[in-house]
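Incident review: delayed structure delivery

Summary: a single-chain prediction request sat in the queue longer than the usual turnaround. Root cause was a stuck worker, restarted by the on-call engineer. No data loss occurred. The affected request and its eventual output are reproduced below so the record is complete for anyone auditing the incident later.

Affected input:
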Amino acid sequence: MVRRFALQIAIAVLSLGAFLPAQAANFLEKGIYMTGPRYDGDLPACEAGLRTIASRFATKESRFWNSNLEIVDFERVRQVAYRPWAAGTIPRRFCTAVALVTDGKKHTVNYWIGEDTGMIGQTWDVEWCVVGLDRNWSYNPRCKMALP
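Output delivered after worker restart:
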């Protein structure tokens, strides 16, 4: 009997919380890792991501598309934009390059290097798209979505 009464009280208290308005974090709560973004914009040059792109491209092609395509070399590497969006957003360096692929063709590669986008936010990482070989259409049309 006591358990049933306690359960009814608990349900009443919890359901009452659903009708109260949400409140922002107080001063103490903000002091516990709710400091907001602290970006310093220190990103490597466009050339820094090329080895990662080549490695991940070969892995993706062999593992998911049963293909032995690899990127052999890059040329005409250049920056397209640096931090093109509003202040407070993740700093990104947008780049483009031309990749020589083992199919004998040259493909444009659009990519960006982002601050704190690597493993658990500890370092920079790169997101990329090879024009003509974006088989799952993640950056369609023609890798345009990998640019600012």
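Verification: The mean pLDDT is 86.
Action items: add queue-age alerting; document worker restart procedure.
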